[in-house]
Amino acid sequence: MLKTTPDLIIIETIFMATNFETTTPKPRSRFKKFITILIIAILVIGFGIFWWNYLFVFGEGVKSGQLNYVVKKGNLFKTYEGKLIQSGIRSKQAGTIQSYEFEFSVDDDSLANILMNNSGNYYDLHYKEYKHALPWRGFSPFVVDKIVHMQPAEH
User: Fold this and answer.
1) Looking at residue 155, what DSSP letter applies?
2) Cα distance between residue 116 and residue 80, in whole Å
3) How far apart are CA 47 and CA 39, in angstroms?
4) Measuring CA to CA, how many Å separate 27 from each of 23, 31, 53, 115?
5) N- to C-terminal Cα distance for the chain?
6) Would you give the DSSP letter of residue 131?
7) What is the structure's pLDDT at 119?
8) Is the dihedral angle over the CA atoms 120, 123, 126, 132 positive or is it negative?
9) pLDDT value, residue 5
10) CA separation for the pair 118, 101 (Å, rounded)
11) How far apart are CA 60 and CA 33, in angstroms?
12) DSSP string, 91-128
C-alpha cells in the first residue's frame, strides 16, 4: 500500500492542475503574411529608388576654367557652392553672347578652403554627377571631389 504524505499530496495536486495538452501555434493568417511581404517589398523598392536618384554616381568628369567663386551658404545645412567660368562662348538667343558656367558643390572642407584661397586661378576640377542633389551635399548635382591641376591666372 502506498503511503500518502503531505509532499505526495502536493505533487499530485500540481500534477492534476497542470494542463498537459500541447497547444500548436496558430498558423499565421494569409492576410498578415501578405501585408508583411508587401511592407518589406515597398521598403526595398523605396530604398532602391532613393539610392538610384541620390546616391548612384551618374557620371564623372573633369571641367576646366577660371574659378569665379566658392562660398559657404545654406539655411539648415551649410554647404560650399562654387562657379567655374569655362572658356568659349554660347548663345541662347540670337544676338546674345554668354560664357559657359559650371556650378558645383564641394563636400570636403579642406578642398573648399584651397579653392576659396585661390579664387581666380585656372583649374581642372574632377567632379561626380548625381541625378539629384541632397541638402547636406549641396545645391548642385555636380560635386567636386578633387583638383586635378591648378594654374595661376595671368593678369
Assistant:
1) -
2) 10
3) 12
4) 12, 11, 40, 64
5) 120
6) S
7) 87
8) positive
9) 61
10) 18
11) 44
12) -SSTT--EEEEEEEEE--HHHHHHHHHTTTSEEEEEEE
Residue 108 exposure: Cα atoms within 13 Å on the Cβ side: 11
Check: CB of residue 105 under 8 Å from CB of residue 140: yes
Checking phi first, is residue 12 left (phi over 0); if not, alpha (psi -120 to 50) or beta? alpha
Nearest to 149 by CA among 113, 100, 114: 114
Assess contact for 70 and 112: CB atoms under 8 A: yes
Confirm if 119 and 69 have CB atoms less than 8 A apart.
yes
Amino acid at 113: N
What's the grid cell of residue 39?
511592407
| pTM score of the predicted model | 0.69
pLDDT in tens, 13-47: 555 555 555 566 666 688 999 999 999 999 999 99
Question: β-strands 142-151, 98-106: how paired?
Answer: parallel
7: amino acid identity, one letter = D
Cα separations in angstroms, 23 against 17, 26, 29, 32, 56: 16, 9, 17, 21, 51
CB neighbours of 79 closer than 8 A, spacing ≥ 6? 72, 73, 105, 106, 107, 136, 137, 138, 139
